[in-house]
Structure formats: structure tokens, C-alpha cells
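dumping this here before i forget
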Amino acid sequence: MELLKNMPKKKEKREEFQFKDPRHQQDLVFKVVPIDSLEVVEHQRKPSNYHVTHLISSIERVGFIVPLVVVEKDGKYVILDGQHRFLAAQKLELKELPVIVVPQKLANLMMNFNIEKELNIREKSYVALNIYRQYLRQNPQILETEPVLTDSIEQAYYVTLGIGYEKEERLRGGMLESIMKKCDFFLEMPLEEALKERERRSERVRQVNSLISEIAQKLKEMEKWHPFVYQQILSFANPYKRKREPVEFDEMFDNLTKNLEEARANPEIILKEKIEE
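structure:
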């Protein structure tokens, strides 16, 4: 009996529960895993310290009851949804967390439809660009219009803006979105070619952003600045604000740039423009 008592205990096998999602009947697995086997997906957005603190308080009161959504990769579990809950659990020094393991094919879609918090346009653009680059590494010849990519990236112009944000953090992507959605769509070309075109487009977007800033500064020096001055400048310069049909990218930006350069030479013409939604 003494010998049996001193023998090392057999490692318990972790239980798991297999089930199918009710919409597409995809195979899912629920299990509890060590916290050190989890990692955050590389193109996740920057976490909010306020949100983590709020979750710590919630977990302390009611427990950790919402599983993380993960995908298994190279012996680790990569978190697709639940980054803030994971960080809160680390702060609380929890050793294990409940997870739902989803198929690898859902990884990019889950990043696009992240359900924890609505992303702002900068975050959407960064995520879209990183997903885009992931597909590029896997298959440079895949067309940008392939459904597997268009389903993973909400809007093509997020990729263009993502490249722009990498070079200019103060890019006014939210304001420029009304322009981009009319002219920047998925391209019928392989990703390795399409990326070069998106880099070119991002330079044109940054040029427009810079012109708007210059005009706003001139209006400020004229003591004509107001909180909506940037929107007023764009409203003046937008050549197709009443047109609903799609426009070619370069046609849009050629005319937009021309109008902004006119306003830079004579900022007072901006003041006559009514701001339009």
C-alpha cells in the first residue's frame, strides 16, 4: 500500500465536448485548456486597458463563464475572440480557461466579424491589411476577387487605408470613407500585383489627406477655423457627392486633388460650401 501511495499519479486526460454549430453544422470542440497554451492572434487590435479592468471586476463577481473562441495551431490555441477576457484572466492569475475550438478555415472570417467590440475604421483597416498579407503569403497568385478573400475582408478600401495608416497615423480614414466606398473596390488581379496597386492608391489618399490639412491650417490662420472645417473642405472638393454610381479610382482622385489644389490657392472659396452628409 505504501508503494502505491508513493507512485506518481497517472496524468488525467482532459475532457472535451464535441458538437456542431446549428447554422452550418461545422465541427466545434469545447474544452478547458492551460492559460499558457493560449496566445493572441498576431493581427488583433490593440487592447483597451479600461475594458480589461472592467472584465476583471466582472470575473471577480460572477466568474469566467464565457469561453474564448480559438483555433489550434502548432500546438497552441490562437485566440480569435476573447483577447480582453484572456488578458483579464492573466491579471487574475487563472491557470485554465474554457475555450471553443473552431476549424482553421474560420480564422480569417472570425477576425473580420469580431464580436467583442465594434472596431473603428483604423482598427478595421489594420486587421484587413494583415489578413490580406496572410493570404498573400499563402498564395500570391490568388485573385483579390476570390470569395474566400472577399468574405474575410469587409471592404477592399480598408486594405488601402491600412497601408496609409502604417505611414500616417493621423490619416482621416473615417472622413475619407465616403470617398473610398465610391471608387475603391476589389481588383481582378493576383494579390502580388494588387498589393502594388493598393500601395499606389494609398499614396494618393495620403496626398489628399495632406492637402486637406494644409487648407485647414490656412483657414485657421485666417481665423476661419471651426470644428467641422475638415468635412467642409472635403464637401467642397468632392466631385461626385451627388452621384450614386461607382466611379473609377483615378478619376475620383484626379478631380478631388484638382479641387483641393484650387482651394489651397484660395481657401476662402471653402467658406461658401455647405457641409453635406
